[in-house]
Amino acid sequence: MNSSRLEAFSDGVLAIIITIMVLELKVPHGTELSDLAPVLPVFLSYVLSFIYVGIYWNNHHHMMHAVEKVSGEILWANLHLLFWLSLIPFVTGWVGENHFAELPMAMYGGVLLMAAIAYFILQNRILAVQGKDSLLAKALGKDLKGKASPIIYSVAIISSFYNPWIAGTLYVW
């Protein structure tokens, strides 16, 4: 199988994830600017999650263009990634509805951590099939951000229980 079907399926799933997130945004009751205050935490968590899903979509898109053939391992690794990304609307809503409380912030980080691990697994499965001299291997280089992300998410998860705003800053960073 070539990568176009895998990419099309993944694009569809990511579009649904974004749709679910935006449908969770509730219209404020009232016409004053102050009426937006109660929905601000939900909106801010949506913005952050939209950016994360957008980053994954963009990176996935570029990665799939470097893939020459798709194996069963790659299909399962891709589904693993999509599973964790599909949980983003849930944790986004939980964080927003609970005004960035400790446990929702930690769970948000847990989903981000697992998505980062799943993406790393997908990359490695693709590299195993494509080879060390593949276009993807050359494009990745050292990938310091990809390697640092799980560490940052882990620190943010722990800090969620001490100061959720530190965790939020690390998620934005």
Structural features:
173 residues, globular, mainly alpha, 8 helices, 0% strand
How does this structure look, described?
- The protein is mainly alpha-helical.
- The termini are far apart.
- Helix 1 (3-23) runs antiparallel to helix 2 (40-65) and helix 7 (144-160) runs antiparallel to helix 8 (164-172).
- Helices cover 77% and strands 0% of the residues.
- It has eight helices and no strands.
Number of helices: 8
Secondary-structure element pattern, one letter each:
HHHHHHHH
Q: Count the E strands.
A: 0
How much helix, percentage-wise, in residues? over 70%
How far from one another are the termini?
A: 37 Å
Radius of gyration: 18 Å
The pLDDT mean sits at 93
Characterize the largest beta sheet: strand count, sense, and whether it forms a barrel: none
Name the poorly predicted regions. Answer: none
User: What would you call the structural class?
Assistant: mainly alpha
Strand content: under 5%
Task: Please give the structural blueprint.
Layout lengths: L2 H21 L16 H26 L6 H15 L1 H10 L4 H29 L4 H6 L3 H17 L3 H9 L1
Helix pairs in contact: 1-2, 1-3, 1-4, 2-4, 3-5, 4-5, 5-7, 5-8, 7-8
Brief digest:
The protein is mainly α.
